[in-house]
Amino acid sequence: MGALVFNIFLVVVFGWAVIETFGWRQEVALFPRVVASLGLLVVTGQLVIELRNRRRAAHQVVVTSTAEGDADASVRIGRQGAAWLFAGLSCIVLLGVPVGVPLFVVLLARYRFEEGWPLAIGLAAAAVFLILAIFGGVFGAHWSDPLLLTLFSA
Fold first, then answer.
1. CA–CA distance, 150 with 154 (Å, rounded to integer)
2. Could you read off the pLDDT of 38-83 as tens digits, one per residue?
3. C-beta separation of 120 from 105 below 8 A
4. Coil/strand/helix, residue 94
5. pTM summary value
């Protein structure tokens, strides 16, 4: 229950921060607006996942484990997190930002968090929209060529 309340609190805080920056000058509001918008996206996604997991947990049997098993699980979770981080960075470097980010978001949501295709594709679309809108539109970022394209075009 605490995680759900905290997620709702963070949605309110980040939402307020985004709304608050609309009255500021563009050059002053740019960084806080970017950070607050990305924070709002991440926390909203976490809230959706938390609500879905609560519904699933109501239909599952809880299995307890020993303290030794908990330590092994912590190591396993740490290794899995590092592997997913490496996979995400590899997607971005090899395929480029516009292709690598949505691919990684879909893979992460679908296979790590076991979410359905509609949520995975929706999160990927939101990530692409924010990246292109913020970094492409606001900052005018130029994406470098993907490593695979560079290697095979020579």
1. 7
2. 788 888 888 888 888 777 766 665 555 555 566 677 788 778 888 8
3. yes
4. helix
5. 0.57
Distance CA(35)–CA(11), nearest Å, equals 13
Place of tokens 């999160």: 123
3 state SS for 99-154? HHHHHHHHHHHHHHCCCCHHHHHHHHHHHHHHHHHHHHHHCCCCCCCCHHHHHHHC
**Neighbouring C-alpha atoms within 13 Å toward the C-beta of 108:** 23
Q: Where are the domains of the chain?
A: 1-57, 84-154
Give dist(CA 29, CA 50) in Å, integer. 31
- Say if residue 22's pLDDT is above 60: yes
- Which residue do the tokens 């050059």 mark? 27
